[in-house]
Write a structure and sequence with these properties.
Length: 501
């Protein structure tokens, strides 16, 4: 671990100043207004600046310094912050009577009770300013970090690893439900800023410097969470540590998944937000299954988005500050040649979750799910993993259970105006992945009666009688689809009923 930027006394003084100014998410959003908040999400400051016109209170000063990257008069900085402690650390610099902040200190809060401040480098391209980040740039709160936090299963566990911690935001979430946290990063500057994030926010972690799993060799965890360097680019140029590794194509992602499985304690879970390539002539599901199956872990893999090489390259060249520069087109063509040599047809983006259940026949699910979801989705993924044994019940075992349909299920009916009966009946979940299924009269009738009162065999018998169909035929028709729904967490058992035979 590198030397902390601030002493414990200076951290306490800084925290006190942030608290005194009410430098919180709600207060900042109220100060800059909805338009200012939306503008910052687009990396533009004009709306927020206008909202702060004529304000010189401490909250406005902190917003200008840390969020808008603006200079303020020395007197305002001295009123709002313990300048004597921050200036020697290089966090504040003064020139000709104006003070600037060299870091972004941003209030952070989430629905799981997290509240604090996250320290990172300033956004390099604010207001479309052409600026390339330094190689050791430390990214702040991003859509990726937010998604990973919402993806993570929040069961209470003893030990967790935040692999590639960056600014340390995932540790703030882990601290809500984990006893001992280890956080690693290859970038020593990231660990410096993560230390400050944790110190300001009252969280603790064992911070370790090193690549991938090297700093935790021989150790196992109940939970590993990571958004590893995700940009797959040619290795011929200086790389941004936070987003690019030295592996070819998706080799880094593969190493994170396959090596991570070795660091899972029995029952432990690995959750990865990342990218993978689609190669010519090979289904993406087969490639990822080839990574996962040798680990012996259960897995839920969800591909959320697919980009063609052109879209992908344009996004990350712009992110690197190269848009509008002379290097843009040469780098673009070089990147295309790189993908062409590797036969990359597209890039998939999504979520990989592994669980070390020690099964002789692990359950591996891979699907493309680009539809809207209701965040957080961690609980839905946990439910699917927990349902593996239920979905593997024999038909007799399924039939004697009393089942309850997920309470967030609603029914949608579609048909022609004025028609007596709908032409389509859809059941839809309102939480997690928001899965939906179309049901016929028989399956809809069975699911509608699954309230935990009757065993499934009695439900099927009753529906068969009401619809005037053969009971064995209905049972044979219903059970495969029912089993699939159990596996996706639509149904949970509450008790065993009597044997139907």
């Amino acid at each position: 671990m590198t030397q902390p930027l601030l002493s414990a006394e200076d951290v306490a003084a800084l925290r006190g100043a942030l608290e005194l100014a009410s430098y919180t998410v709600d207060a900042v959003n109220q100060a800059i207004g909805a338009e200012g908040e939306a503008g910052l999400a687009r990396n533009h400051t004009i709306a927020a600046e206008r909202a702060l016109t004529d304000r010189d209170d401490n909250l406005a000063t902190l917003i200008r310094l840390f969020v808008l990257q603006q200079a303020v008069p020395d007197s305002l900085a001295q009123s709002a912050l313990p300048v004597r402690g921050l200036s020697p650390a290089g966090m504040l610099v003064s020139h000709e009577g104006q003070t600037r902040a060299t870091l972004d200190i941003r209030p952070y809060a989430a629905d799981d009770g997290v509240a604090g401040w996250v320290v990172s480098d300033h956004a390099a391209s604010l207001n479309t300013r052409p600026s390339m980040p330094k190689p050791d740039f430390v990214l702040g709160i991003s859509p990726a970090s937010t998604t990973l936090a919402q993806l993570t299963i929040r069961d209470r566990v003893g030990a967790a690893l935040d692999l590639g911690t960056g600014c340390g935001v995932q540790v703030l979430h882990l601290a809500q439900h984990v006893s001992q946290i280890t956080a690693t990063d290859l970038n020593s500057r990231a660990l410096e800023l993560a230390h400050l994030t944790l110190a300001l926010s009252g969280a603790r972690a064992d911070l370790r410097l090193g690549s991938l799993y090297e700093p935790v060799a021989g150790q196992q965890y109940d939970l590993i969470t990571t958004n590893p360097p995700f940009v797959m680019s040619p290795t011929t140029h200086e790389r941004l540590v936070y987003r690019e590794g030295s592996y070819e194509a998706d080799g880094l992602m593969r190493a994170v998944v396959t090596d991570g499985a070795k660091h899972l304690a029995p029952g432990g879970t690995l959750q990865v937000l990342g990218n993978w390539v689609h190669l010519a002539g090979q289904p993406w599901e087969d490639r990822l299954a080839g990574w996962i199956e040798p680990t012996g872990c259960d897995a839920v893999v969800i591909q959320r988005e697919v980009l063609d090489p052109y879209e992908y390259i344009e996004i990350w060249l712009t992110d690197a500050g190269l848009a509008g520069t002379p290097d843009y087109l040469p780098r673009y063509r070089e990147w295309l040649d790189y993908f062409g040599r590797l036969e990359v047809e597209a890039i998939g983006m999504g979520w990989v979750t592994l669980r070390n259940e020690g099964r002789s026949q692990p359950a591996v699910s891979l699907e493309h799910w680009p539809h809207l979801v209701a965040q957080p989705v961690g609980a839905a993924i946990a439910q699917q993993l927990h349902a593996v044994d239920l979905a593997r019940m024999s038909n007799d075992e399924l039939l004697i259970q009393r089942w309850v349909l997920a309470p967030d299920t609603i029914e949608e009916s579609y048909g022609d105006p004025g028609a007596q009966d709908p032409t389509h009946i859809v059941l839809r979940r309102q939480q997690g992945l928001c899965r939906a299924i179309e049901v016929d009269t028989a399956l809809g009738g069975v699911l509608g009666v699954c309230d935990g009162e009757l065993p499934l065999w009695q439900v099927v018998r009753a529906v068969a009688s009401l619809t005037d169909v053969d009971e064995p035929a209905l049972r044979a028709e219903i059970l495969p689809r029912f089993r699939e729904l159990v596996g996706h967490g639509w149904l949970t058992p509450v008790a065993s009923g009597e044997d139907h035979r």
